[in-house]
Design goal:
4% strand, two-stranded antiparallel sheet, mainly alpha, two-stranded antiparallel ribbon, elongated
């Protein structure tokens, strides 16, 4: 078994990550850091902080030079950070010491590495947003199609009352719509540059630090925090919290579809399931199980990452190293879960015959609540509840159908109010409103 399923050829289809995996690699990190060094030099040259000819040479080199990540390993192991080795190799490859001396001018390693992370998180959130919109759009259409389709709501793993399948889908989708609606503010308020120097004071940049940071942020298309966030991991914490909510929202859908796929229910189909090596009848709910496993992994990593949100002093190596180990795996877990969720939402099929069979198997007990409310029209509410409880016990004992027994015991009862379609309540409205909400956040 590989160290990570996301790097495995065997598990690549079970835990797919799409293009997200490319953002969490040595090569992507090195390229981002080189881009940042080149952009910083360019902005400093434009402001007259370093010679403009040196800035131009550094910026051009940042786009042309190739640095082997493996060649940085020895120094990274010694220094505990990659940037010193990267800067040394960059200067060496430039073969122009008179220009290269201005590379990384005034910056510290954390400025470069944190900004690299933010550049890649920006791309990652863009990928997540596109996939999430696809998923929500598919769910919205499905909810509209099934806004009045009967479905058995379950509580405590038992059949409860009637709802519509569209309303169930709305429950899955509304949380996702909320997340999409929050995303623009999350991006603008958390995707920040870091440019504060060794201890977060920006002193090495001189009095132009405020203007420099603003210009640097604009050049990279990131936000300007107007301060140091070396030891304030709030922007990362906000992004992680949003992603954690997304992971749990996807798991909710997977959990419900896992129940629906049980052989004794089979009320929902998602197409061809996974096979068994020995049992040919099996159709294992692989996608649902994978989403739930990925969510479990993400939740564990999220708990670990919360420990990095209060780094000690001006820089905390332990907290920083923990981010490096856990954040990529956390992000890839959620990207993979979303890949599976899109496949699920594109292939969900309701099985009305199995739902009808489920209704019949309840012996009409699913109408017990509705029956008690109808009886309350002709007797006190407590008496109605007691009467229905007594009748339920009797029917379960002798195998009768609750509604048939109620019709015999109370022949004047309005039976039309006890039809399944009459018990949908607001369910169709919830489904329709979700469909509208889904369209508004996926444009």
């Amino acid at each position: 078994m590989p160290g990570s399923v996301f790097d495995s050829q065997m598990f690549a289809k079970l835990f797919p990550t799409g293009n997200a995996a490319r953002l969490f690699s040595d090569t992507a990190d090195v390229r981002a850091m080189m881009l940042i060094e080149g952009t910083l030099a360019k902005v400093q040259g434009q402001m007259g902080l370093i010679p403009e000819i040196s800035a131009a040479a550094i910026h051009r080199a940042s786009l042309e030079l190739q640095i082997d990540p493996g060649g940085l390993a020895q120094a990274t192991g010694q220094n505990g950070v990659t940037v010193p080795a990267l800067v040394a190799e960059f200067r060496k490859l430039m073969q122009a010491p008179e220009y290269a001396q201005y590379l990384h001018f005034g910056a510290t390693s954390q400025d470069i590495m944190d900004t690299s992370l933010m550049l890649r998180l920006r791309q990652y959130l863009g990928l997540i947003e596109a996939d999430l919109k696809t998923h929500v759009s598919q769910l919205g259409q499905l909810a509209a199609e099934h806004k009045t389709s009967l479905f058995v709501a379950r509580t405590y793993s038992q059949d409860a009352t009637i709802t519509s399948f569209g309303a169930v889908i709305a429950t899955w989708g509304n949380a996702l719509c909320d997340l999409l609606a929050e995303l623009p503010a999350l991006k603008s308020g958390s995707l920040w540059v870091s440019l504060s120097g060794a201890a977060g004071t920006g002193a090495a940049f001189g009095p132009e630090i405020t203007e420099l940071r603003a210009n640097f942020a604009q050049a990279l298309g990131l936000g300007d925090p107007k301060r140091s966030w070396h030891s304030d991991r709030a922007p990362i914490a906000r992004i992680l919290a949003w992603l954690s909510r997304l992971s749990n929202a996807l798991a909710k859908m997977a959990e419900d579809l896992l129940v629906g796929a049980q052989s004794n229910l089979g009320t929902v189909s998602i197409g061809q399931g996974g096979g068994s090596s020995t049992m040919p009848q099996k159709q294992n709910p692989v996608l649902q199980s994978a989403i739930l496993a990925l969510n479990s992994n993400a939740n564990g990593l999220y708990a670990t990452l919360t420990n990095t949100s209060h780094p000690k002093e001006s820089r905390d190596g332990v907290a920083w190293f923990t981010e490096w180990m856990c954040l990529p795996q956390f992000c890839l877990s959620i990207a993979s879960a979303l890949e599976h969720a899109m496949t699920l939402s594109a292939n969900i099929t309701l099985c009305p015959d199995r739902i009808e069979a489920q209704l019949q198997q309840t012996q009409g007990m699913i109408f017990a609540e509705a029956l008690s409310f109808e009886l309350a029209r002709i007797m006190p509410r407590p008496d109605a509840q007691d009467a229905v409880k007594t009748l339920c016990k009797a029917c379960l004992s002798d195998g009768r159908n609750l509604l048939a027994a109620a019709a015999t015991q109370w022949p004047d009862l309005d039976q039309s109010a006890l039809r399944a379609s009459a018990l949908l309540g607001e369910a169709p409205k919830f489904a329709a409103e979700f469909h509208t909400y889904a369209k508004s956040v996926t444009v």
